[in-house]
Amino acid sequence: MMVGYFMRRMTVSMSWQNKALRQRSSFTTMTHNSILKDSSHGCQILMSPTLVSLDSPDIWASNNHHTHYQFSSNRNFSNEQTAAVINGQSKIACEVRRMEDSIGNVPGLAVIMVGDRRDSQTYVRNKILACEEVGMVSTVTALPNDCTEHELLSAVASFNVDPSVHGVLVQLPLPQHLDVRKISDVLSLEKDVDGFHPINIGNIAMRGREPLFISCTPKGCIELLIRSGIEIMGKKAVVIGRSNIVGLPASLLLQRHHATVSIVHAFTENPEHITREADILITAVGMPNLVRGNWLKPGAVVIDVGTSPIEDASCELGYRLMGDVCYEEAVRVASAVTPVPGGIGPMTIAMLLCNTLDAAKRAHNFI
Ligand SMILES: NC(=O)C1=CN([C@@H]2O[C@H](COP(=O)(O)OP(=O)(O)OC[C@H]3O[C@@H](n4cnc5c(N)ncnc54)[C@H](OP(=O)(O)O)[C@@H]3O)[C@@H](O)[C@H]2O)C=CC1
Ligand SMILES: Nc1nc(=O)c2c([nH]1)NC[C@@H]1CN(c3ccc(C(=O)N[C@@H](CCC(=O)O)C(=O)O)cc3)C=[N+]21
């Protein structure tokens, strides 16, 4: 009971704070051109679209993988890309409206956050803002840093049985005394919009199986590649990092898209020898400037997932985000690079909306 009361109070205060953040939301300020050309080096900057469409090519159905990925060129794509993005953005909001008009329900997302990390607060606010913008309902449960495992799991369990909540997300990282594995023991598989459940990850790994949800960040990486006209099939891809949330599912997804995948991690010797082979490099470590220009094959496509908050008093929030890639060097070598911020972060949020919409449609049997 106490947890429920606390949750409701926090919901109110967070949504108030969100209004203040609206002005600086990457969703509202982002350019509609998701590919910008860096004129000085001929490298494309793969910006995240404001929102992506719901009709990403269906790779899961067998035997269709020769049709969808034959984009002719990753150059001169900007006009088509803009059209697709605007179309995609309106599509999620339209689907939410269609659902409300037909059955009187809108998708609902519950976010549980433990502790007071500033960067986590920013990411969560961005998620809530994004929900608002497409007409979804959202709620944030903020638990104190020293909350018990029981409190956390009770919060998850209460959302499992709340019919207005279709997706539940526990923001990571958790304080050390809490075990992330316990969450997936409790969280309803049908509400796992983060794609963390072992069954969802396992089903990405196995041929002929369909996960209910694909983790948002890896899904966003693939979506951005596809939307940017970058062919994955047959390419050499390297993923740096092998976490359950990003690296592992990213490597599995690239494989499902028929790339030849290598994984680099903390114990890999001479990682730069491996990354220099990559046509596509996805890096998810959390170490600023780990990837230097000389780690890249000329013409490579570089997706920088890393977001490390670095103290910077001159910034509004007292910190700025840095990716894993030395951006200034990468743009001189790569054919395309995602910036931080403005690259994969907003894609992650867009995929969360897609997953939440899917969850709601499934829950209400709404087609
Ligand atoms: N933009 C977005 O939407 C998102 C961004 N992120 C960001 O991505 C980054 C990674 O997140 P997450 O996967 O959760 O982090 P984890 O800390 O869970 O995983 C980091 C991975 O990096 C590997 N690693 C550590 N040091 C090195 C090194 N020197 N060389 C190569 N690999 C190394 C680790 O290897 P090992 O397994 O051997 O320990 C591990 O697999 C963070 O900056 C996070 O903030 C995360 C999620 C979403
Ligand atoms: N259960 C769980 N799921 C996650 O998806 C998850 C998580 N835990 N823990 C932390 C990471 C990180 N992450 C980001 C989300 C949005 C931005 C984002 O919006 N970035 C903006 C800028 C942010 C800002 O406004 O400063 C951008 O890159 O343009 C970044 C990073 C999700 N993560």
From TrEMBL:
Please give the GO cellular component terms listed in this UniProt entry.
Answer: cytosol
- Which pathway does it operate in? One-carbon metabolism; tetrahydrofolate interconversion
Q: Which Pfam families match?
A: THF_DHG_CYH, THF_DHG_CYH_C
Please state which protein family the record places this protein in.
Belongs to the tetrahydrofolate dehydrogenase/cyclohydrolase family.
GO terms under biological process? photorespiration; tetrahydrofolate interconversion
Q: Which UniProt keywords apply?
A: Hydrolase, Multifunctional enzyme, NADP, One-carbon metabolism, Oxidoreductase, Photorespiration
Q: What is this protein called?
A: Methenyltetrahydrofolate cyclohydrolase
Q: Which PANTHER family match?
A: BIFUNCTIONAL PROTEIN FOLD 1, MITOCHONDRIAL, C-1-TETRAHYDROFOLATE SYNTHASE, CYTOPLASMIC-RELATED
Name the catalysed reactions.
Answer: (6R)-5,10-methylene-5,6,7,8-tetrahydrofolate + NADP(+) = (6R)-5,10-methenyltetrahydrofolate + NADPH
Subunit structure and binding partners: Homodimer.
Q: Which residues form the Tetrahydrofolate dehydrogenase/cyclohydrolase NAD(P)-binding domain?
A: 215-363
Q: Is Hydrolase there in the keyword field? A: yes
InterPro entries (UniProt xref):
Aminoacid_DH-like_N_sf, NAD(P)-bd_dom_sf, THF_DH/CycHdrlase, THF_DH/CycHdrlase_cat_dom, THF_DH/CycHdrlase_CS, THF_DH/CycHdrlase_NAD-bd_dom
